[in-house]
Design a protein that fits this description.
single chain; alpha/beta; 2 domains; 9-stranded mixed beta sheet; 4-stranded mixed beta sheet; 6 helices
Length: 269
């Protein structure tokens, strides 16, 4: 039976016309599925469904999601990240309970050594609405590529990428074209940025292991379809155990001119 599938041009180019046509005819596409964005059931025979192709160095995995949650697209991730996404999609990865605001770290190769970006998820109240947010803070100063420091160029580098300095956390950050947040199996996997001349997207931040987010955070992101990403230099925010304390830290960083932000859509799942 034909499926109500959306197969984007990028996905079709990766999987080939033959496989795309088989999907659309329903020969290889599942009827029912769990949306890899919101984790609720979907039916490709009865409702618009997006095909999302995760592409790693050696493998590619096709996933399905509600058309209302995310569009059909190709998402480039590392092979390790892809395996984590597969485990989340198939439900094979163990649940990792998080106390307080969940955090994760990823090594970042920088001149003179390695810096680590910590990331915290939380909800931010703006104009009476709760918005899903991520707060990024390095554990050490970030040097500009090609230099050895000792200055911290984390915020200037992000501003060059299109992040906007925040003076008032009560205002919604501006959308940042080409960037997005990768959620797979209801867990946070990466923040993606434009891939440059190669096209597509590449990971700017990746979790070592898929990062659990709260049910409230998932509900908020399924409603807004966007994530507010805040970034501050080392020592500006800290590991805050509650969202009210996280908001206070954001307010203080903004007042001190040490906060930038952008709004990003969901990518992949």
């Amino acid at each position: 039976m034909p499926r109500m599938l959306d197969v984007s041009d990028d996905v079709r180019a990766e999987i080939g016309d033959e496989e795309a046509d088989l999907l659309l005819r329903g020969e290889t596409a599942p009827g029912s599925y769990d949306c890899t964005s919101c984790r609720t059931p979907g039916d490709s025979e009865r409702e618009p469904t997006s095909t999302v192709l995760f592409v790693g160095e050696e493998t590619a995995v096709l996933a399905f999601a509600h058309g209302r949650c995310i569009p059909s697209q190709v998402v480039t991730v590392s092979e390790e990240q892809l395996q984590g996404a597969v485990a989340s999609i198939t439900g094979e990865s163990p649940a990792t309970p998080a106390a307080g605001a969940p955090t994760a770290d990823v090594p970042r190769s920088e001149p003179g050594g390695q810096a680590v970006l910590g990331i915290t998820s939380g909800l931010v109240l703006i104009d009476g609405d709760l918005h899903p947010a991520l707060v990024v803070e390095p554990t050490a100063p970030i040097a500009r590529p090609g230099t050895t420091g000792p200055g911290d160029d984390f915020l200037p580098l992000l501003i060059e990428q299109g992040f906007i300095p925040v003076t008032d956390t009560a205002e919604l950050p501006s959308p940042l074209a080409g960037w997005s947040v990768l959620l797979a199996g209801g867990q946070l996997h990466a923040v993606l940025q434009p891939g440059g001349e190669a096209g597509g997207q590449v990971a700017w931040w990746q979790a070592h292991q898929a990062l659990s987010v709260t049910e409230g955070w998932r509900q908020a992101v399924n409603k807004t379809k966007r994530v507010l990403v805040y970034a501050a230099p080392v020592g500006s925010i800290g590991q805050q155990p509650r969202e009210d304390l996280l908001r206070d830290a954001l307010d203080k960083a903004a007042a001190g001119g040490k906060l930038v932000a952008a709004s990003m859509p969901l990518a992949g799942t």
